[in-house]
Specification:
It is built from nine helices and no strands. The protein is mainly alpha-helical.
Length: 152
């Protein structure tokens, strides 16, 4: 390894970021990454252990249960992704819960409107969802499908 690459490796191993080293030596970050990969072992994690989190899985599970929050609300509260919340809940053995999208009263209203002849599209628009989802609700509730009438 030439002298310049030794200095690059030393700077990176001392804690400089790839981008900082690249700027210092006037090359791209990718080139620094190549030099470091060829030079030897990667630098250890700064924490010396597993990735540090801003929060614990215990805190996430406790918040989720105490506030009866949704996955999205919990993720927003902790500033993390929904999948992180899901992993935390799974690791702590907390069952996720789904908030029903429509109440039984809403479903009854959808069925009665459909049976009265209203179009799926119009019902969907009033509930801010698609006609396809309204159709799914109707199938799940056991409503009988209307026949399409072809206009000749």
């Amino acid at each position: 390894m030439n002298e310049r690459n030794q200095f690059i490796y030393a700077d990176y191993f001392a804690g400089m970021s790839l981008q900082d080293v690249a700027t210092k030596y006037g090359v791209t970050r990718q080139r620094i990454q190549q030099i470091v990969a060829k030079a030897g072992p990667k630098r250890p994690r700064l924490s010396g252990g597993p990735k540090l989190r801003k929060f614990s899985y215990d805190e996430i599970a406790a918040y989720y249960q105490a506030n009866e929050a949704t996955l999205a609300d919990t993720a927003k509260h902790f500033g993390c992704s929904i999948s992180t919340v899901s992993h935390a809940l799974a690791e702590k053995g907390v069952e996720g819960r789904k908030k029903p999208r429509f109440t039984s009263q809403s479903i009854n209203d959808i069925v009665s409107r459909y049976q009265a002849g209203e179009k799926l599209r119009l019902i969907g628009e009033s509930y801010q969802t698609s006609a396809q989802y309204i159709n799914t609700i109707l199938r799940r509730s056991g409503a009988t499908a209307r026949r399409r009438v072809k206009n000749v």
